[in-house]
Design goal:
Shape: globular
Strand order of the largest sheet: 2-1-3-5-4
Structural class: alpha/beta
Largest sheet: 5 strands, parallel
Helix content: 40-55%
Number of helices: 6
Radius of gyration: 14 Å
Distance between the termini: 31 Å
Number of strands: 5
Strand content: 15-25%
């Protein structure tokens, strides 16, 4: 599977670890930055990645910042995108199975690389279960405002 991935400078080292981990599992990562240890505004990277998911260029994406919160908030501003902050495997699994989250976010200052890999694995191995959750996920879409590009 092709996966979009992005981060700010706080997530740079963890992003490299996750890219290697996904590659070793046969996935290809398309990297949206940041690429060097320079100050980057996480909303810029998160928005780019979320727009790619919205355009259905990727089924899934991973965003990393210091806490995972800022990139999730930004990604969730894009209509049709569901991003979930997950710092444990159960949340990652439920983000997919119950909420059909296309974007996984986490914080490099919150979790270490080994836990991040297990979270990514749990999320990647999970699929949307539909059922009663379908109605709820569809309802989320009814609450979205019209998006205007500037």
């Amino acid at each position: 599977m092709n996966i979009a991935i992005g981060c700010d400078e706080a997530g740079l080292a963890l992003k490299a670890t996750i890219k290697d981990h996904l590659s070793s599992s046969g996935h290809e990562c398309v990297d949206y930055g940041c690429f060097e240890n320079e100050v980057v505004d996480y909303p810029d990277v998160a928005y780019k990645v979320a727009k790619e998911v919205q355009a259905e260029k990727f089924e899934r994406a991973i965003l990393i910042c210091g806490t995972g919160l800022g990139v999730a908030i930004t990604a969730n501003k894009v209509k049709g995108v569901r991003a979930a902050v997950c710092h444990d495997t159960y949340s990652a699994e439920r983000a997919r199975k119950s909420n059909n989250a296309q974007i996984l976010t986490f914080g490099a200052r919150v979790i270490g690389p080994e836990l991040a890999k297990t979270i990514v694995d749990a999320w990647m191995e999970s699929e949307f279960q539909g059922g009663n959750s379908t109605r709820k996920v569809e309802k989320i879409g009814t609450y979205e405002e019209t998006e205007f590009d500037s």
